[in-house]
Amino acid sequence: MIIVQKVYGMSLDSLSTFSLADATLTETMALKVAQFIIALSFVIAGFVCAKTFRQNFASFTNIKTRIHPLHLIIGIALLVCLIPIVDGLVRFNASWSFPENMAQSFTELEEKSNHTYALFLKFNTGSQFIINLLIMSVLAAVGEEIFFRGILLRVLSKWFGNIHVGILTSALIFTLVHFQPYKILPMLTLGIFLGYVYYRTKSIWVPICIHAINNAIVVVGDWAEQTGKSLPIFSAEFQFTELQIILSILAFVGIGFLFWKKTKDNDFSYE
Questions:
Q1: pLDDT at 41 over 70
Q2: How many structural domains does the chain have?
């Protein structure tokens, strides 16, 4: 925040007051710099945590474990099946009723989050599109997966003495950090999914790739809208039908069973 404020002369605390229509390229670049620093901070935090627990960072996060191509292919297939399910969860989550004072606060948080994301994507064509893919998809996925799955999941699993509780708790913290009240269910589902992918493959690069693809879908969808491409699935009005969601659930269960057969339980204990 200090770097962005000193270099670009803007305060991140005032993001909600920025007019999306009047946002300049310089301001959106400042946001990209901020997100790059945030992604880097997750990696640094992971490194500090590893040293705190007297562990080698690379081995503790399994960052050197190679990707098994089949694991990645099945993982991406599961993500594709998860997209319609998440769409249904978003609509279900949005229908929740909260007490009036909470609902107002939650709505303001959600609007602020959506507004900030729209500022990130204000310029999403040409070279800006590539920059957005690198920062918002790749770097964000690397930083968050290293910290939430590579470090936090492992530490919590040891503390609770149960890998499944560790996966659920790390996913819950992942959801709260991204706090968007009307997207709690889809965020939690994604966190749990990435946690089990990591647990069964023991390669942090598999959830990183899946997370990056998930983020890239949003960036590509916005790019399609800004460049006038005809991609109905990315439009704000598009919704999956109930039948498509049910079929996706069945496909997810079937492919998930295959994934479970092709992978194994891994030991995440440490001294």
A1: yes
A2: 1
